[in-house]
Amino acid sequence: MGELPPQVQNLAAQLQQVQQQLQLILTQKAQLESLIKEAKDALEELEKSDSDHAFKAVGNVLVKLKKDEVEKDLKEKIETYEVRKNMLERQENKLRERLADLQAKLKSAINVQAG
């Protein structure tokens, strides 16, 4: 078949770049989902506790705080993580659309080249 035309090479390079961006987004989203689960689990355990105080890790030190302060902090973390996750999901959807578009264009360009 020989050398691919620059247009096809360009489409293939764009496709590869979008695939890499999508993989990065999916990795970040998975990390956030893990952080959300961890924070929700901690909040659930904290809500089961009868104590008025809880310990919070600050660097390498555990600090004793009022239970409601720790609960508030966990709820804020969850909210922040979920906002970031939603942002990543929007980016993921846009990248998936772009990926499908590039795949169609590349397939069409290859068919034109072959035919």
Question: What is the CATH topology?
Answer: Helix Hairpins
> Can you give the helix content as a percent range?
over 70%
Q: Which architecture would the CATH scheme give at its second level?
A: Orthogonal Bundle
Amount of beta strand: 5-15%
| Domain unit count | 1
- Can you give the mean pLDDT? 94
How would the blueprint of this fold be written?
Blueprint: H1 6-48, E1 53-58, E2 61-66, H2 67-114
Antiparallel strand pairs: 1-2
Helix pairs in contact: 1-2
Coiled coil: 8-112
Family: Belongs to the prefoldin subunit beta family.
Keywords: Chaperone, Coiled coil, Cytoplasm
Written account of the structure:
- With about 120 residues, the chain is mainly alpha-helical.
- About 80% of the residues lie in helices and about 10% in strands.
- It has one domain: Helix Hairpins, CATH 1.10.287.
- Strand 1 and strand 2 form a beta hairpin.
- Helix 1 packs antiparallel against helix 2.
- The mean pLDDT is about 95.
